[in-house]
Amino acid sequence: MCGIIGYKGKRNASDILLSGLKRLEYRGYDSWGITAQNGEELATIKRTGKLSDFDGKLPSSHMGIGHTRWATHGGVTERNAHPHLSCDGAIAIAHNGIIENYQELRDELSAKGHVFKSDTDSEVIAHLIEEYAKEKSFKEAVRKALQQLKGSYALVAIRRNGSEIIGARKESPLVIGIGDGEWFLASDVPAFIDYTKDVVFLGDEEMAVLDRGLEIVDIGTGSPIRRPIEKVSWSAEQASKGEFEHYMMKEISEQNETMRQVLAHSDSEIMGIAKRINEAFGVFFVACGSSYHAALTASYVFSKIAKKHINVVYASEFPYYEDFLTDRTLVIPISQSGETADVMQAVKVAKSKGAKVLAITNVMGSSLMRAAHWSVMMNAGPEICVLSTKSYTSQVALLTMLAYASAGRLAEARAHIEKSVAEIERLTSAETKIKLVELASKLREKENIYVIGRGTNYPTALEAALKIKEVSYIHAEGFPGGELKHGTIALIEEGTPCIVIAPGDETHNEIISNAMEIKSRGGYIIGLSPENNEIFDFHIPIPTFGEANALLNIIPIQILSYYLAVLRGCDPDKPKNLAKSVTVK
Ligand code: F6R
Questions:
Q1: What does the pLDDT average to over 31-47?
Q2: Domain ranges within the chain, ordered by starting residue
Q3: What is the CATH number of domain 247-567?
Q4: Is 580 a catalytic residue?
Q5: Is 26 exposed, middle or buried (0-12, 13-18, 19+ CB in 10 A)?
Q6: Domain 3-231 has CATH 3.60.20.10
Q7: Which end of the chain has fewer beta carbons closer than 10 Å to its terminal beta carbon, N or C?
Q8: How many CA atoms lie within 13 A of 135 on its CB side?
């Protein structure tokens, strides 16, 4: 969590830093700060709250660093916001990650006379660099300081009167953007995509010095490292809101296009991955949150279409399965960001047991992509809203293709997804949105919403409930259709909303019976189904295309969640307490 940025070049650094931080706010948004260097002066500005609330003046300069925070150590205060400065105010750093040995370092530095101004773990880095800089060059001082740190970091650092900007990373992401006579450092590409698409992905435990050119060294040994300049395919338009008020609605509305991008994977690529799945002795899907729901959906498709059992495990629980892993196991971590700490830990465990790792991720150059033996991109484009919407459906579509490919039926999956594209256009049209605003206004005052589904749509029910609760703060729970009567039905009373996912497949009749059980206890039934049914109080028509129907069923719920948030005055792009990249365990 937290987003960091650095800039050196001909433009006004503060403007670049501020606009870049706005693009990184999905990584944390409880406070922010910028330090701009103007030769003799390091001018720092820090604020709590969102960047959009700021209407003050920023210092002008050609070099600076910035940070947007998701608090871990120390409360949400200006004092704890980054950048942090050394005692003499000559060194400024912004940090993303966690310094596990910060207390020990803080005690040592305090004994040497350093005075700390914040409660954060990060501030020790500025003081450590200051300590080493008494005898070494700035570059060497940063490198030595980094060697003392236990934990994870992505770091940007500048000094008073210096011409260089330094970036370094261990386990947290940092990418370098190379413009025409200008340099960028950021946690993620959208922060500078308006200016350049030429990037260098810094490796783990590497440090970059940007001065007149780019120099990369190994943090441990100091030896030089060469890294290629790569071109990112994301565009500036993809990373902007365009005509939409919020990224969430923009990203929901572009799912027709992201489906096309999933279909753009060649047959040979998909068949190659399916072959690895078929040949493995034991396959694990490992993921968190929405990505876990996509994995669970796919496990049903693998079971039905490919007759293949897939173990689906929450990444945070995966280490407890290590005794099942061998060198013939295939572990497939699924992660939009490719930075989720629990997922990275699972990969570490898998590799320590000799298992092979095939990553599915949306972010090129991400930690996950580098750690895996093989990887496949989700092709969803940048997802800026904290909630996953288009990345979720891309995962479901890609995994569905893999399941069908595993049974030698890839063409069928392609046909189902192609038909879904037209349907997504209808589901995200103004007409459907108006209908869902109407539903949202009926539900906005409710305290609880339940969602039920069976088979592939049981995970859809889980995902639907997650979408509703994380953005509107209405309590929502998803269940397999048959389970509600085993306890939770006790909570159904007059008017309790229950969303029933009733596709035209083998689950239809049974889920309708489950809906009747709820209706007869006063429940208000919202049916997602190809045809209307007399027990539905509100009907959302959705066709069923083979085992790909789960990816369509979630779309109206994404839209409903968005309108519930807007009607309740919540920010759909930045729900409270959340961050998009969860880089803490
Ligand atoms: C929910 C959401 C989260 C993520 C989860 C995993 O809308 O976005 O539940 O799905 O934090 O993130 P990734 O896929 O980046 O590993």
A1: 92
A2: 3-231, 247-567
A3: 3.40.50.10490
A4: yes
A5: buried
A6: yes
A7: C
A8: 5
